Protein: Class I SAM-dependent methyltransferase
Amino acid sequence: MLDETGKPEFWEAAFSEKQEMWGFDPANSAVLTKDFFIAHGVKNILIPGIGYGRNAQIFRDNDISVTGIEISATAIELARKQYGSDMIIYHGSVTDMPFEDRSYDGIFCYALIHLLDSDERQKLIRNCYNQLSPGSYMIFTTISNC
Ligand SMILES: C[S@@+](CC[C@H](N)C(=O)[O-])C[C@H]1O[C@@H](n2cnc3c(N)ncnc32)[C@H](O)[C@@H]1O
Structure:
């Protein structure tokens, strides 16, 4: 995607230059969330801001199906190269959610929400909540200076 000046959007430029910049191991939060989701019978999840999918595979390895949303086309290509093409990843901004009419047992959103402004954060949380099945869970991680 291009920004308002016609240049590649920040994350598109970052993934084009640095490729799989955080390696392929899942973040510790993804490991802990996987255990929580298994314990609570979660079977399908949405990962907004999925990047190149490093946090997706640990869920898929445990029979939890994953759908992603990602703004960078290059990150989606990297995910397809590494993990195959059977995982749905919607190309677009989370500000344009929902991308489909379905609900999820769980949402795992790692290191995205702090990148958004205040209005966009509220919208992301509301849009994620609206895609949850009754009695399901959403987990966000963020960077904070508190
Ligand atoms: C700090 S990275 C974390 C990536 C991934 N969650 C991980 O941990 O490997 C933030 C991710 O969110 C994506 N992103 C940023 N703004 C977005 C937006 N408005 N809509 C969808 N994805 C976005 C970026 O392209 C990037 O993949």
In short: Strands lie at 44-48, 65-70, 89-91, 104-110, 132-141.
